[in-house]
Amino acid sequence: MTSLTLTALGLLALLYSIHQYRTRKKLLLPPGPKPWPIIGNIKDLPPKGIPEFQHWLKHRTLYGPITSITIMGQTIVAVHDKQIAFQLLEKHSIKSSDRPRMEFAFTLCRFDDFVSSRYDHGCRRRRRLLEQQLCTTSSRTQFDEIQAVEVRRLLLRLMNQPTALTECLRATAGSTLLRLIYGYSIGMNNNDPLIDLMERVSNNMALAAVPLAWMVDAVPALKYLPAGFPGAGFKDTAKKWREVNRAVADIPYLFTRRQMDAGTYRPCYVSKSVQDLSGDSGPSSLSGENEHDIKYTAAMMFLGGTATTVITLKTFVWAMVMFPDVQRKAQVEIDTVIGPDRLPQVKDRGRLPYIEGIVKETLRMSPATPLGFAHTTCEDISYDKYDIPKGAIVFASLWWLSHDPDIYAEPSRFDPERYREPRNEPDPKAVAFGFGRRKCPGRYVADTNVFLVVAQMLATFNINKAVDRFGVALDAEFKVRPGALGHVVDFPCEIVPRSEEMLRLVRGDGVKDFEDEGDSSKIRDGFDTLLG
Hints:
- The protein is an alpha+beta fold and 532 residues long.
- It has one domain: CATH 1.10.630.10.
- Helix content is 49%, strand content 6%.
- The protein contains 19 helices and eight strands.
- It has helices spanning 3-25, 52-63, 82-91, 103-108, 121-134, 144-160, 165-182, 193-208, 215-218, 233-262, 269-278, 288-322, 324-337, 353-365, 398-401, 429-432, 443-460, 500-506, 524-531; strands spanning 66-71, 74-79, 375-376, 381-383, 386-388, 393-396, 461-464, 494-497.
- Mean pLDDT is 88; it is low at 1-9.
């Protein structure tokens, strides 16, 4: 491709931006900083090094609860008001359920297989599959036993490695999801090739989705450059990431199918989906379309669920360190209602209102996705006096919706009683899992998991401030890394068993049932074949 061709491509991109700019000028967009001609508000994007929600909060302060910027003709709308968020993303969900379209992430890397950018027939079909398997009244409890086993294994991990909080939470989150999605078990040593592979894909996805980080997103015609051409290095990266994406979908799926063929499978999301979609004809009759849907919904459940679970549970541990009065009240409730002879179970949830308050407060305190996941409008929307054009990116700041002082009194205080009489502050679950037709389909599984971890960790351990070598208690500063996911920076803490009785209870008879070596040896051939 000649330099003349490249110049022509750049000129086309410039002309397109001018057209978009002139078109948008006719609209009454929500308020925001004044854009530069053509390039718009590039200078008003979040700077590197700070959580993005903090940057957008400044726009709320300056311009109000709904604001906008434009980048080369692309409208971006930020919402910092619960009612506006519900109006745009729930009431108008038929018009606002697409995802932002990114050429590098979706077209070249094929992350569109995991997260459909269009709310089209295929997306609706996959959502329906997920809702049927995870969200119906009968399906919500089918994974309770799996989660109870994995939380017991978390307690054992923490007893053996009390200073490795993040590693233990990561292993348990991954183990729980692999077990309920694929019927796959990982060992107790916190290491497994599938966990590592999933994290690799998750990290790639986060890099691929950074706005304007890839020139092909600003100039889509660059995707036609031949591989190896100067400036087309992104195509080599995309090829490698596509191969890993295929592996992360194929390897665990094939594990489950082989176990089904051998009659040794554990019931799970994949096995149940295969059985339901193949009907009386048997798994061998499963259509290619249905197999693709099962593969990629399963992989997306894992990719979307592991990191968010770790974020939520680290937030809980931090809160127990910094609000010891809350921890003591919770332990009194558990000791009174459950007693010393067993651990709390899902069936006890209705009798543990203070623990339920801790679950809600954990979800409120630090949303796993501080800005939610962005929506894109597929039609023009009018809100109040403002025009939100087709193709606009719209996001609601879940962090602000969970910290709005007009809704939550003293929002920086971890207070589980705010949801009880007479205060009755709103349940944060209404926004924590997203909005409209893109709401997290795994919300019920996640909610149960958080309850079990909170209840059983508090029954078993005291979670204290760590002390330095002089015996001085160390504050656990709460910091969130920049990015779409609000990863919590590690903090000092001390996790110790409450008593010898609790040690014996967790390590009691049958403990070997919780310490199997895992299934990693059964997938080695898959890694050799698909990853070289």
